[in-house]
């Protein structure tokens, strides 16, 4: 794994639930690689950091460096599910001061990620339906057709501004329904890939 890029406010209803304007260009932030955590087992999170919110997302991994002349299918190695965890209290404080978000987005365990499965085609990607369950209750669900910026638009923007190479991963944004985690919560992710349902978890939240 190389760079971890994340897209903010890429689903309109999520932007609205956060009281934010819809972006006119992709909002990019990143996480350090030590933020990565598997999508099962125990997820230990820092209790002193304040309220932590879950944000389920589709994640794609680059098979090679971005080239605008090549088809997306050739450049993408795989697709997975991920959870972008956000220290919401910290983020709010940082935003009020006009400071960068990294501390609120990059703490250990804040980039939950499942295994990758092969990326078949852009058409099949857009048909994926994914969801997050907390304690057996569906709290988020979405599909790429709801994204404000398409994969092509995201790749082009990231590549031209930051670079996008082999092994980089992109968290593509979260649908509405984000909310806080409590000690002992159990998370599970599900997705419908080409007619086949994949289940990931359970992931138990433990505040330390």
UniProtKB/TrEMBL annotation:
Signal peptide: none annotated. SUPFAM superfamilies: FAH (SSF56529). Belongs to the FAH family. Keywords: Hydrolase, Metal-binding. This is Fumarylacetoacetate hydrolase. The keyword Hydrolase applies. GO terms for molecular function: acetylpyruvate hydrolase activity; metal ion binding. Pfam families: FAA_hydrolase. InterPro entries: Fumarylacetoacetase-like_C, Fumarylacetoacetase_C_sf. Gene3D superfamilies: Fumarylacetoacetase-like, C-terminal domain. Residues 4-193 form the Fumarylacetoacetase-like C-terminal domain.
């Amino acid at each position: 794994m190389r760079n971890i890029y994340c897209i903010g406010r890429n689903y309109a209803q999520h932007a609205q639930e956060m009281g934010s304007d819809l972006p006119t260009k992709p909002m990019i932030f990143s996480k350090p690689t030590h933020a990565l955590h598997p999508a099962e087992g125990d997820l230990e999170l820092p209790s002193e950091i304040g309220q932590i919110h879950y944000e389920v997302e589709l994640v794609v991994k680059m098979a090679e460096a971005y080239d605008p002349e090549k088809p997306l299918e050739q450049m993408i190695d795989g697709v997975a599910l991920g959870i972008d965890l956000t220290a919401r209290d910290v983020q709010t404080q940082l935003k009020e001061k006009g400071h960068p978000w990294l501390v609120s987005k990059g703490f250990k365990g804040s980039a939950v990620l499942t295994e990758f499965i092969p990326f078949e085609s852009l058409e099949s990607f857009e048909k994926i339906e994914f969801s997050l369950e907390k304690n057996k209750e569906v709290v988020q669900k979405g599909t790429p057709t709801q994204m404000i910026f398409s994969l092509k638009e995201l790749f082009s923007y990231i590549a031209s501004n930051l670079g996008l190479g082999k092994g980089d991963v992109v968290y593509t944004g979260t649908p509405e329904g984000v909310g806080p985690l409590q000690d002992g919560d159990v998370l599970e992710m599900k997705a419908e890939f080409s007619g086949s349902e994949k289940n990931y978890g359970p992931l138990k939240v433990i505040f330390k």
